[in-house]
Write a structure and sequence with these properties.
Helix content of chain A: over 70%
Largest interface: A-B, 39 and 45 residues
Number of helices of chain A: 8
Oligomer: heterodimer
Largest sheet of chain A: none
Order of helices and strands of chain B: EHHEEEEHHEHHHHHHHHHHHHHHH
Order of helices and strands of chain A: HHHHHHHH
Low-confidence stretches of chain B: none
Mean pLDDT of chain B: 90
Helix content of chain B: 55-70%
Number of helices of chain B: 19
Number of domains of chain A: 1
Strand content of chain A: under 5%
Radius of gyration of chain B: 22 Å
Shape of chain A: globular
Structural class of chain A: mainly alpha
Chain lengths: 202, 470
């Protein structure tokens, strides 16, 4: 049964890289949906399928909600981006993957000895890539995608540590709430020209 | 009929918030409903009998403290009621200020939802789940920060991002802490869980270097909404943090924890104070002064062995009232001035003397000016910090001077006429619904400064909920 989690791990790396590199919402929404499928497989290792499938359904609901909103906003499909910036993000993503591969065994043995290494690796990978994504974008839907990925990574690890119906329910609310906030952000757009103000802040 | 306290202070306000949300187009009705609910619940919490039994004529209502949800419990204990009374009273006060034009219509229902969620967070068992409730509250708070449905400010995105990062850290730290209880003090897990916990709280409280969203949001959102946000979240999160100190002995005994908290407190006081001193934007200055206040809270936590918790609890209501007046005056002035910069408000005191006086006094009160509300606590805190370490004390004092300096600069700007060659007569341009609340609050701040022991002792009863911290 180790083959499915390994496959899920590979899917997680690929989808996280796609979300980091590309800026087209359709590609990213598809990648996020796939990522949730992989996360479900990994959560399924620790939880009964009936409970793990909640993560999948909620993740897909969040993805669809944001995807439909992007579609209604008629976001440009061909975002003008220089190959250099995509290359930069790809290299940054590869660095994160490398760092997480190095960190994961130590984290697993020192902090989460009861967890399968692949679970720890997948969780850390999503946490790391989510953080990198947050650092490279100020686009609302990408920020929310990054936060959803990051929470997904956390939930993969946390599922192996604790099983609680209330916590699962609350995390469902957090994920859906985040998607709704994303919808709200996409609807209002982001103010331009605030870079100056940001520089003034410490 | 079986009733319970969470039903009263968590579910009931949520129902009212839904009704208020549905009535968003009827401004007066929604304000009245929100204010009555908030003040009613605050009053009830303040007067609730210890035996949890309400007798109204022949009717006798017996309350239990617990509400079971999905195998877990939300508990609103009698001991925590003074704190709940405070947050509901302040919710009522802030929603009262929502009659100002341009206040987001979502503010009223959301303020009730936030207070209800944070009340639940203060009493959920296991208490670690509070992190998720706080996260939900953060998500709910986002729409009220956008001004008039306008474009989303990057500060709000940053706020959402940094606050969301805190939840996983706290939950993971909580899981680690359950194992740490049985481990020796030199176990590496102790350090790891403490770092995770510290990072989580630093993100939540906007501690340096995670503070950048506070001035950004303060500058772009309505001051009354920001005032409510920066009072409610840090206050509840600090009370939530006491659970950790109460529950885990190793945290209380951790070497250097007190010094570390004091160090970060002083850093926040200095950063906030210095940045406030040199601001020209009034709203941004409000944001930076929040950093200073977070610093004082951390310093009080660091002085736990010298009675710091009492100062921390006493600071909550005094800070809340100061922030309320400050944000109220800023919101009112924002409706009369083009923007809230030194240049724009120049000479405005000659047309709006009471609002200007309210603004200045609120700032002085927060800064700890003698005869005003925060003075006794700030003095005690600064003295204790000085006793703990001369460098800490001196830097805290310097940082705290920042707000004084800013207030003096603002006072000069408010009094100097736009055109220095023409004489501008003093006149009262405020409406009664603008100057009356300001006058009442000024009176309260002065009374609290003159008689600090007579009004504030009730909030200290909250500490009885944390038996190990007595």
């Amino acid at each position: 049964m180790q083959i499915l989690p390994t496959l899920a791990f590979v899917v997680i790396i690929m989808t996280a890289m796609i979300i980091l590199i590309f800026r087209d919402w359709r590609i990213n929404a598809g990648a996020l949906a796939l990522q949730y499928l992989a996360a479900f497989i990994l959560v399924d290792v620790s939880w009964p399928t009936g409970m793990a499938v909640i993560k999948l359904i909620v993740g897909w609901m969040a993805t669809v909600t944001i995807g439909f909103t992007c579609m209604r906003q008629q976001k440009s499909t061909a975002v003008e981006e220089s190959p250099a910036s995509m290359f930069f993000r790809a290299v940054a993503g590869l660095l994160v993957i490398l760092v997480m591969f190095i960190l994961a065994p130590g984290v697993q043995s020192n902090i989460f000895p009861g967890l399968n290494l692949i679970i720890v690796q997948s969780g850390l990978m999503l946490l790391g890539m989510g953080l990198m994504q947050l650092g490279t974008t100020a686009e609302p839907y990408l920020t929310v995608f990054a936060l959803l990925s990051l929470l997904s990574g956390f939930e993969i690890i946390h599922a192996g540590l604790e099983r609680s119906s209330l916590l699962t329910g609350l995390l469902v609310l957090v994920n859906l709430g985040l998607a709704l906030v994303g919808v709200y952000f996409i609807g209002t757009g982001v103010e331009k020209g605030t870079e100056q103000e940001e520089e003034e802040v410490l | 009929m079986t009733l319970n306290t969470p039903l009263l202070w968590v579910l009931f306000p949520l129902v009212i918030a839904a009704i208020v949300g549905a009535l968003y187009q009827r401004k007066a009705l929604s304000i009245i409903l929100t204010v009555i609910t908030a003040f009613g619940l605050a009053l009830l919490a303040a007067l609730f009998p210890e035996n949890l039994t309400l007798s109204i004529g022949p009717l006798r209502l017996v309350f239990s403290e617990n509400l079971a949800i999905l195998g877990r419990q939300i508990t609103v204990k009698y001991e925590i009621l003074p704190f709940i009374s405070l947050i509901y009273a302040m919710t009522g006060l802030w929603t009262l200020s929502s009659w100002f034009p341009n206040t987001p219509v979502a503010f009223r229902p959301i303020s009730l939802v936030l207070t209800a969620l944070l009340t639940a967070a203060a009493g959920v068992e296991p208490f670690l789940y509070a992190a998720v409730l706080i996260q939900i509250a953060i998500l709910v708070s986002v729409p009220m920060l956008s001004q008039g449905g306008g474009a989303t400010d990057r500060g709000i995105l940053r706020y959402l991002t940094l606050q969301t990062l805190a939840m996983p850290l706290i939950l993971l730290a909580g899981w680690l802490l359950t194992g740490v209880e049985t481990l020796p003090a030199d176990s590496p897990l102790v350090g790891q869980s403490t770092i995770l916990l510290g990072l989580g709280f630093a993100l939540w409280l906007g501690i340096f270097p995670f503070h950048s969203w506070i001035p950004m949001v303060a500058q772009r959102s309505r001051p009354n909404v920001v005032g409510f946000l920066v009072f409610l979240f840090p206050t509840t999160i600090l009370v939530f943090s006491l659970n950790f100190f109460n529950r885990y002995t190793f945290l209380r005994n951790l070497p250097n924890l007190a010094e570390t908290l004091q160090l970060f407190g002083v850093v926040m006081i200095v950063i906030g104070g210095l940045w406030t001193a040199f601001q020209t934007d009034l709203k941004r200055a409000f944001g930076f002064s929040v950093l200073t206040e977070s610093g004082f809270s951390l310093a009080a936590l660091g002085l736990i062995s010298q009675g710091g918790l009492n100062w921390l609890m006493l600071l909550f209501p005094l800070r809340a009232l100061g922030f309320w007046l400050w944000s109220f005056a800023l919101t009112a002035l924002e409706n009369h001035a083009e923007e809230l910069t030194f240049e724009s408000v120049r000479g405005i005191a000659r047309r709006f003397p009471i609002l200007s006086a309210g603004l200045i006094l609120a700032q002085f009160s927060i800064a700890g000016m003698p005869l005003l509300a925060s003075f006794p606590i700030k003095l005690a805190l600064l003295s204790a910090t000085l006793n703990a370490g001369t460098a800490f004390g001196v830097w805290s004092f310097i940082g705290n001077l920042g707000l004084f300096l800013f207030t003096l600069r603002l006072l000069f700007s408010l009094l100097t006429p736009q055109d220095e060659n023409t004489f501008e007569k003093w006149r009262l341009s405020e409406k009664s619904n603008e100057y009356l609340p300001v006058l009442i609050m000024i009176l309260i701040l002065v009374l609290l400064g003159l008689f600090p022991n007579n009004f504030m002792d009730g909030i200290l009863n909250t500490l009885t909920a944390f038996t190990q911290l007595q």
